[in-house]
Design brief:
Order of helices and strands: HEEHEE
Radius of gyration: 12 Å
Shape: globular
Number of helices: 2
Mean pLDDT: 91
Number of strands: 4
Largest sheet: 2 strands, antiparallel
Length: 74
């Protein structure tokens, strides 16, 4: 998902994501569309994108104004 620079700034201020040694685990058909990292992430960001019955991991590339999220529902 492409974000505006203002949205990136707000997410950085709100969630303070940091570089983590993890990458988006997307289905094979989408892997070539995922930009190269390193990715920023935070547990709080994951929690806020999750919902009832959903497991979510969120990854940011602030220099590219990009947010990638992986969600699995029950």
């Amino acid at each position: 998902m492409k974000l505006s620079p203002a949205d990136v700034e707000q997410i950085m201020k709100t969630y303070s994501p940091v570089t983590q040694n993890r990458v988006p685990d997307v289905v094979a058909e989408l892997r070539d569309q995922v930009p190269a990292g390193p990715f920023l992430a935070s547990d709080a960001l994951d929690r806020d994108f999750a919902g009832a019955g959903w497991w979510t991991k969120v990854f940011m590339l602030p220099e590219q104004n990009t947010l990638i999220f992986v969600a699995k529902g029950e």
